[in-house]
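Incident review: delayed structure delivery

Summary: a single-chain prediction request sat in the queue longer than the usual turnaround. Root cause was a stuck worker, restarted by the on-call engineer. No data loss occurred. The affected request and its eventual output are reproduced below so the record is complete for anyone auditing the incident later.

Affected input:
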Amino acid sequence: MMKNWLDLNAFMSISATHWLYAVGIAIVVYLVLESVLKFAVVRLEVIAKGSATDLDDMVVLILKGTNRFTLVTAGLLSGVNFLDIPYKLVSTLGHLWFVVIGFQIAAWLNRGVTIWTMRRLSRNGVSPRNPVITTMLSWILRGLLWTVLILAVLANIGVNITAFVASLGVGGVAVALATQNILGDVFASLVIGLDKPFEHNDFIVFGSNSGSVEHIGLKTTRIRSLSGEEIVCSNTDLLKHTIHNHKRMTERRILFGFGLTYDTITEKLRAVPSVVKKTVEAAGSTRFDRAHFKAFGDSSLDFEVVYYVTNADYNLYMDIQQRINLTLIDEFTQMGLEFAFPTRTVQFVTSTLEAAPPR
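Output delivered after worker restart:
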């Protein structure tokens, strides 16, 4: 207590003139730093206008976010340095300088990460194909940045950070065990981001569900189903299914069949595959594969046709299939062919029972 009182007594014994000098120096330092900052921002804005990269714009935005409290604190510390203060306070001021500079550098880097994340997540108003990696990198960078700053400040003021880091490791293990389900979904989202089994706006089918991917989050993925409702599925459960990604189809393979009546003559049956091939090729955006007389059905002569639509669009496929069906009806009508439909012939057998002779 006596030593602290002596230090405080020495601090309070500073003359008013020295205090005025200190205040004046603090104001001058603040104004100089403010002027330098404004000049740098103006010059960089001019350079950024003629630059084709986004780096200059990011630097301008980062500098504009400089904390004015940091400039005020730097001015005050500069003024206090001109006072005749005890050695213990001089050492403390040195630590404060480290904290102020470290905080401002961390704030600049944090703002840079924020700007980079915002630009990655929305380029010209368009959502990214997969925001998972960007979001996770943003969180990791910010966490690493502030952790390094806190550890550096603690080390600078004389705290043994080795034991602190070890305790953080033990605590991290405990937290990981308590939140393993959540962490499982987070790591699953990382897998989705790296492996990209599907991306934003892809149409996928998994299990009994299907729909367009609207959002890929850190824990869940949101899918808009064909019937309109939103399906929210955890990333871990989603990756357990076999996922059919229809958006990545380069072409669509189509198989369909039809049946003709049993009274069709052989010559006309031989002509059917060529008629089908001509019809499919004339439909547009198709590649014909085969058409065969497949089997003898219960009430029809069955044909099987395979062709490819060279575009994955489902509506286009339906338009083409409709065109093919209508054309086949016209062609078969002209050939005198009839489509078969399920029929069944029932024969009634009658017998006459001889009357028994009278007794």
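Verification: Residues 1-6 have pLDDT under 50 and may be disordered.
Action items: add queue-age alerting; document worker restart procedure.
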